[in-house]
Amino acid sequence: MSPERFLRTCWTRRSVVGRGAHLRIPELFAAPELQTLDAIFACPHRQVQAWFSTENGAHVQVRVSAAEARSLYARGATTIVVDFLDHPEIARLLSHLYAELGTPQHELYCSAYLSPPGIGTRMHFDSQDNFLVQIRGEKRWKLAPVAEIKYPNRSFVPAVGKLEPELAAVVKKFPDKMPRNATTATLKRGSGLYMPKGYWHASETIRESLALTLSFPSMSFMDIALSHLRRRLVAREEWRAPAVGLTTRGVVQLAALSRLDDLLEGLGAELSSLGAVDFITT
Ligand SMILES: [Fe+2]
């Protein structure tokens, strides 16, 4: 699929699988630093996590040392996740994708997932767009768009994760099983999978797997507006002032409410004179 077609039909909209990425980006697939757990630990990274399921089926993520990760992984029941993995080929791919996607981003990052056969990731959705790259092994994914909300700004794991207030404000309940329209994609060495935010996904490792996830936390229009507003207001003493009295009662509260009304009135007038360009240039 051409980059133009991807941008037109898939980016932020639907998942797509690509094959043969090892031919298009051979340097990434051949990098010796990305072939084994020990080699990956030798690359700069921010943290290592062990993901596993307890006897009652709960999903647990714990931060572990490299030595603990090696030992847990050797027992064959744990996925090891190395977050914010830094490698020149990964950095090159992230910056290339960033330039082509043309969408402002919060911090980009890459995580490596090492998982033994039979171990998977339970159904969940993420709040960022993800590109998965299968370096070796084989993994089967189930995928389906979340019907209840588009572009969620929080991730969610049914039956385990707590529904965050910003999600709960939009959706009362999510399903705890994959929707019937879920599709299956099997990734082998050289496969890539793109899935936008708000896609249910669950995996099962078929053959010992090493995969990279390149995460793109795309900025929303809300993020753009709020960050501009914050920059604008934080420069002003009256907006930085503590909201004294707002949660009391009586005349003190009335005075605080009146002060806020005045500030909002001034802000409303100011915003109505601004255009989109002001939001991205100041
Ligand atoms: Fe995920």
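^ fe (ii) ion complex. Residues 124, 126, 201 surround fe (ii) ion (CB under 6 Å). Residues 251-272 form the longest helix (22 residues).
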